[in-house]
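Entry 12.
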Amino acid sequence: MSYEIVRSIKLDKKNKKVYVTGASNNVTPRTYMKWETPSLTEIFEKQGEVAVIKEILDAYYSGNFQPGNQNHYSKSLALLDRSKFNWDNGYKKLFKKKNSKIIYTKIT
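Predicted 3D structure (tokens):
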């Protein structure tokens, strides 16, 4: 099964676009490129920032994204225990907005 080795993810809040810098694991030589991801951009535009962050974390959790460099998405996986956390209904508890910025809260 192929996956993306992700170096960075950028959420362009002004234009509501999501950019990923990464490479496919099954292509050699490994060349890292930056591209816009249409599926994540669509979620960002229609459902907002919290929903797209949930989708990014789910991509890491399911193995579709693998960390090329540690970033705050890949580091967040250490906090999430899927058996204790309901991804479909409980992700809003993980994120809360304060002064139009997202604050990451610790799961207990």
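Annotation: The chain has four helices and six strands. Residues 97-108 have pLDDT under 50 and may be disordered.
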